[in-house]
Amino acid sequence: MILKALRKNRTITIKYYENGMFQTCSGRVSNLNLSEQTLSLMDEQQKIYSIRLSGIKDIQSR
Questions:
Q1: Is pLDDT of 1 > 60?
Q2: What does each C-alpha distance from 4 to 9, 13, 14, 46 come to in angstroms?
Q3: 21-59 pLDDT, tens per residue?
């Protein structure tokens, strides 16, 4: 179900843990690296966030 949401070319919101802190990020998926198990998300200001798949708690499509 998670990978199905990532496949669509829409803006998504990801809630995840990083360094013990709960964070939220919105944007479009720019890269999914399964060997490193990371997801790159580009927000509206063209800033890229790298998120570990193991830290993801929730994904919402808009």
A1: no
A2: 11, 14, 14, 23
A3: 999 999 999 888 889 999 999 999 999 999 999 999 998
Looking at the predicted structure, is the pLDDT value of residue 8 above 90? no
Assess contact for 23 and 29: CB atoms under 8 A: no
Name the domain count of the chain: 1
The residue segments making up the domain with residue 55 are 2-60
d(CA 5, CA 28): 11
Residues 1 and 6: their CA atoms lie apart, in Å, by 9
Contact in structure between 28 and 12 (CB atoms under 8 Å): yes
Return the CATH number at 55. 2.30.30.520
